[in-house]
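Q: My collaborator sent me two sequences in one message, no labels, and asked for predicted structures for both. Can we handle them in order? The first one she listed is below.
A: Yes, handling them in the order given. First sequence, followed by its structure tokens:
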Amino acid sequence: PDAVPAWLGGWQPAHTRAVCAQAATTLALTTGDDHHLADACDRLTRAVDDLATTSRHRALALTQTRLAALHLHTGDPDHAAHWLQQAQTHATDLRSARLDHALTTLHTRLEGRPGPDA
């Protein structure tokens, strides 16, 4: 907590780790490197676990959408759908254009993916 600048205001360690995990995910999705993808998945999963014990529902839902996007990117639509459902559950009653956009985008991508017979 001491490493977080005061001007950021009130970030809990779990929230800081989630932001770092989301940044690692952006790197992984950009590079496509297997090591980066595995690291991002691990970081996001730990961040979800950390945030589950806080009152940071928006941060939790956003982290879950990033985890869903990562699974979708790596060809695992079942896990992507699971994390999307979890994000929707935590997004109830939240007002966030960024979260709404992520949820809509993921729904569209999951619905538009080819089926197993394609």
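Q: And the one she listed second?
A: Here it is, processed independently of the first:
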Amino acid sequence: KQKQYSGAPSVAIIIDDLGADTGIVDSLFALNIPVAFSILPHQKYSRSVALNARKMGQVVMLHLPMEPKSESMDPGQGALFVDFEDFLIIKRFEENLASTMGIEGVNNHMGSRFTESEPKMAVVL
């Protein structure tokens, strides 16, 4: 449970691109400060990072891969693309959520093209 501070300025720290390895994660745990762990789906350590972050009382987010404008950039496994039918966006999104544990929020990974599409973002939201 996150502490609530009334009237005082606050800062949220979100570390993304997590799940492929555990190196930086161990360093973040050692800091013992509130940090949101934004985890890419379907990575080797996605589930274990999420589970350990939850045990430490940290916020766990899904770092949702989305289509970038650049066709040379690969957003990774589980990415959402603007040419997907709505049912496929929902299916992929649910699969991505299931690949981690205890998700409390979502932020985009890449996604410059996908996030510009109001109809497709409406499906995700």
